[in-house]
Design brief:
The complex is a heterodimer. By secondary structure, chain A is an all-alpha fold. Chain A has 13 helices and no strands. In chain A, helix 7 packs across helix 8 and helix 8 packs across helix 10. Helix content of chain B is 56%, strand content 12%. The N terminus of chain B is likely disordered. Chain B is elongated and about 100 Å long. Classes of the chains: A mainly alpha, B alpha/beta. At the A-B interface, helix 1, helix 6, helix 7, helix 8 and helix 9 of A face helix 7, helix 10, helix 12, helix 15 and helix 16 of B.
Chain lengths: 313, 600
């Protein structure tokens, strides 16, 4: 089990290194015009040259990359070109918002998709058709549009929830819950649709296996067979889809945060992209890839815990 | 984005499997016969047509500003109203469709070209390219697309075309994996070898045989990717990161969002257009997949519990004290597409006396496993007991929709399956699978049950029972697994055992040991047993009486000794001759046959 975890961790670190190197080199390959953008149109050639020297843009890109990478390993992701605030600090003050959103969505998805998928697999008929329709709707409607509709319906018209803004759980737990409910619903619809489909088909596939017949023949109750054994067998493929969903949700959060004016990582990277704040964009990319690595590792360990065979391979 | 992770790996294999066997000409017809598929195609066609014709059919210049009509509601001149700058919403919607679809098409083209070429090369030639591309594929798949696209935008600026091309590159692994596994599968086929031997060039083999197989799966994946492309693109534009000078649907959404409090309707139209387009792409993909698999309607009934007619039932069942199991006029059918039932066993009647071993003999498809599963009440989903009775120890098992039958499973009636390795739950230890039924039926505590299970394992001839208790099924051999399953069957002291070809899947030497074990257990506990087999050697070895089945009907039955020495029915004689020749009847398993029946 330990060597299994170690191998997965090594793979994750490799991903992190490759992804951040490529992104860095790509983003820094063409650094002309940045100083002008920071200083404004009125800047003189000397001012621009001075600014470029200050930011280190006059040095070769590989040299700057080496410096950045050394800093990143020590936990220093540089300084924003526009606000002069530490990237590490900015990212970590925004992280809780995005994590509330994404983790909340994953939890909601897991619960709802498992319930719906199992229901569709065991009942078939009408429940099944409802789930099929839901999965098409969930896949078809972009999450930010669902978010907009939710804002119009529940926040502006019915006034049940705040339309925008984030309340820290440290300030008010109820306020926090109210502020992330609509965003989570907007994000969750799509992932619920995808994961439900997966749970449904995996459940049907596992229920048809020989050992399920044998377990039934032992006189174990239907509940034990379905929830103790079939669901466990169906969990591995469902977890794989959930991991993929997490990667997608990080992207989805970027747009949904804009809809609900949540000050998260997504809002940060969207603004940094518009202004061309390379260090900040890099910081967010690195932190989100790191998040993906951690989540994949957790999912792999979970899968290994559920499925004894996975630990070997 | 909501749809981003829809890279459906399980779909891939199912579709690949299906597309190999599926007759291709009728595929289009099946697709069009599906009402959802037809709707999707019509909708998509309409959207594409309107978008292409936009420059000619748009009632106004999409960029014509007229502040006098800003935020006007729908009117005769502006059917869908006007936006914040008084531009005609309908005209912008049509022109926006053109640009949005063009952007998606660029992403799709890049994804298909890159995925297809690299997948073909990696799958067909393997080698270092395969290793390298597989590695980079898993790297790319773990990247959050949206973040990367945002980073790219910093470098190249707000170009719709470049963004979509990069998106195509990021999503190409889903096509790559599809193509690679398809090519892998085909490459091993004999006809590809034959083509190579006959001197066809690699390029022609790929074009003629390999592309043919992956064609339909690629179309399905392309539909999904097209949807994701539109969602991602409009998401970026919604963030205000798109090219604001071209009126795409995403730009319109972004603009509507800015004026959400003034004119909430402005976000409705582009949103609907996006949802309709992606929705019909998804539906089209689903319909094509269904057409490929050519799935019949799934059966809805739980098998083996409902008896339709009781006319001939208990009346004829004997209340003989000496009979452990009495099967009378048992008829079982499976639903077909035309609502009629296809009968798989008909009027099967036999008695098992106490302490007797009865052999159910027949070739594959004779209905012997169906009979065994009926006795257990474990017929596959969809099966219907049309008529007949199964009486165990004087109790009609089918009387209350199978509740009595289920109540007896494990504690009075037990089952030994055919294929040992697939009949243990791979996720649980052997010990757990033995202990759970004993705790439930015998009311034992955890420690007691473990002790008893360990003793049982020793009793059925497992050399290191303590270690085996802790082992997972994949850690023990097939012969061991069958011993575990037999131990499980007898663990709660049943009086009737149904054994379905308990030795067929095992090595010859192990077969004899397992038969010995069954015999000794039966003798020691006075068990009654129904033994399903196609092997008359096993019958001669073990059985007291025999029922010969053919095509779901009993052709001959009687005491084993008499039937073996003087078979009356020609079919029995044929079967017997086949066994004596040493050639066993066809080895297609009954389980596989049952699956076929269930699917029919």
């Amino acid at each position: 089990m330990w060597s299994f975890i170690a191998r997965r961790l090594a793979g994750g670190i490799l991903l992190l290194v490759v992804a951040s190197s490529l992104t860095y080199l790509l983003m820094n390959a063409n650094s002309g015009g940045i100083a002008l953008r920071i200083l404004g149109d009125q800047a003189t050639a000397e001012q621009i040259a001075a600014k470029e020297a200050e930011l280190g843009l006059d040095r070769p890109v590989l040299e700057r990359f080496g410096e950045w990478a050394l800093g990143a390993v020590r936990g220093d992701l540089g300084t924003s070109w526009f606000t002069s605030e530490g990237v590490w600090h900015t990212v970590f003050s925004r992280l809780p918002v995005t994590l509330s959103l994404v983790v909340g969505t994953v939890v909601v998805t897991t619960i709802v998709a498992t319930a719906l998928g199992v229901l569709a697999a065991t009942r078939r008929g009408r429940v099944d058709r409802v789930v099929q329709v839901l999965s098409v709707v969930g896949a078809a409607a972009p999450n930010f549009w669902i978010g907009l509709m939710l804002v119009v319906g529940f926040a502006l018209t019915l006034r049940w929830f705040p339309a925008t803004g984030f309340v820290s759980p440290a300030v008010s737990a109820a306020g926090w819950a109210a502020s992330i409910t609509l965003p989570i619903v907007a994000l969750a619809l799509g992932s619920v649709a995808a994961v439900t489909q997966q749970v449904r088909s995996a459940f049907i596939e596992v229920e048809g296996r020989d050992y399920v017949r044998t377990l039934r023949s032992r006189g174990l109750g239907e509940r034990t067979v379905l929830f103790g054994h079939v669901l466990r067998g169906a969990a591995t493929p469902a977890l794989t889809v959930l991991a993929l969903q997490f990667v997608g949700l990080l992207g989805g959060a970027v747009v949904v945060e804009r809809v609900f004016a949540l000050p998260g990582l997504g809002e940060t990277i969207a603004n940094a992209t518009t202004s061309g704040d390379v260090p900040l964009v890099m910081g967010v990319v690195v932190v989100s890839v790191a998040l993906v690595v951690v989540v994949n590792l957790v999912i792999d360990i979970l899968a290994g815990w559920i499925n004894p065979k996975a630990r070997v391979s | 984005m909501s749809a981003a992770p829809l890279t459906t790996a399980p779909l891939t294999t199912a579709v690949l499997r299906a597309s190999e066997t599926g007759a291709d000409r009728s595929l289009t017809r099946r697709l069009l016969r599906n009402p959802l598929g037809l709707t999707a195609i019509v909708l998509l066609g309409l959207i594409v047509l309107l978008s292409v014709l936009a420059p000619w059919i748009a009632p106004h210049d999409p960029n014509h500003v007229d502040l006098a009509v800003a935020f006007d509601p729908p009117s005769a001149t502006h059917w869908l109203g006007a936006d914040s700058a008084g531009r005609d919403v309908l005209s912008r919607l049509l022109t926006g469709g053109r640009l949005t679809l063009l952007g998606a098409a660029i992403g799709l083209t890049v994804a298909v070209v890159v995925g297809l070429v690299s997948g073909l090369v990696a799958g067909y030639y393997g080698g270092w390219f395969d290793t390298l591309s597989d590695l980079s594929t898993s790297l790319v798949m773990a990247l959050p697309n949206m973040m990367i696209l945002l980073a790219i935008r910093v470098v190249v600026g707000p170009s719709l075309w470049i963004t979509m091309a990069v998106f195509g590159l990021l999503i190409s692994p889903s096509i790559y994996r599809l193509v690679r596994s398809g090519v892998r599968q085909v490459r091993g086929e004999l006809y590809v070898d034959a083509a190579r031997v006959s001197g066809l060039s690699d390029a022609r083999i790929i074009a003629r045989h390999v592309l043919f197989v992956v064609r339909a799966p690629i179309i399905i994946q392309a539909a999904i990717i097209g949807g994701i492309a539109i969602a991602i693109q409009s998401g970026l534009e919604f963030l205000g990161l798109g090219d604001q000078t071209v009126p795409t649907w995403g730009v319109m959404l972004s603009e509507g969002f800015g004026n959400l409090y003034i004119a909430p309707l402005l976000i409705l139209w582009p949103g609907l257009a996006i949802a309709l387009t992606i929705g019909s792409l998804v539906l089209f993909g689903n319909a094509l997949r269904d057409a490929l698999e050519d799935k019949p309607a799934a059966p809805r009934l739980r098998g083996g519990v409902a008896r339709q007619s009781t006319a001939t039932a208990t009346a004829t069942a004997t209340a003989d004290d000496d009979v452990a199991l009495s099967v009378r006029g048992l008829t079982v059918g499976y639903p077909t597409t035309s609502d009629a039932l296809k009968t798989v066993i008909e009027s099967v009647t036999f008695d098992v006396r106490r302490g007797e071993i009865l052999g159910l003999v027949g070739e594959s498809g004779s209905g012997k496993t169906q009979t065994a599963w009926s006795v257990l009440g474990l017929l596959p989903r969809g099966a219907v007991v049309e008529s007949g009775a199964i009486v165990h120890d004087g109790v009609d098992l089918l009387a209350d929709a199978g509740r009595t039958q289920r109540g007896l499973l494990g504690r009075r009636i037990a089952y030994v399956p055919q294929e040992p390795m697939s009949n243990l739950d791979p996720y649980f230890t052997v010990g757990h699978q033995l202990v759970a039924p004993m705790r439930k039926h015998l009311g034992l505590g955890r420690a007691e049950a473990r002790d008893r299970a360990t003793q049982l394992l020793a009793h059925v001839g497992i050399p290191d029972p303590v270690r085996t208790m802790k082992a997972y099924p994949h850690e023990i051999s097939g012969g061991m697994a069958q011993r575990v399953l037999i131990a499980g069957a007898v663990s709660c002291d049943p009086d009737l055992i149904v054994a379905d070809e308990p030795t067929t899947a095992l090595d010859v030497t192990v077969q004899a040991e397992i038969l010995d074990l069954l015999r000794s257990l039966q003798a020691e506990r006075g068990l009654s047993m129904v033994l399903v087999t196609h092997n008359f050697g096993v019958v001669a070895d073990l059985c007291d009486s025999v029922v010969v089945l053919r095509g779901g009907q009993v052709v001959e039955q009687g005491p084993a000794a008499a039937l073996l020495s003087a078979p009356q029915h020609p079919y029995t004689r044929d079967l017997l001759a086949a066994t004596l020749d040493g050639t066993a009847p066809r080895s297609v398993s009954d389980a596989a046959y049952a699956e076929l029946e269930a699917a029919r």
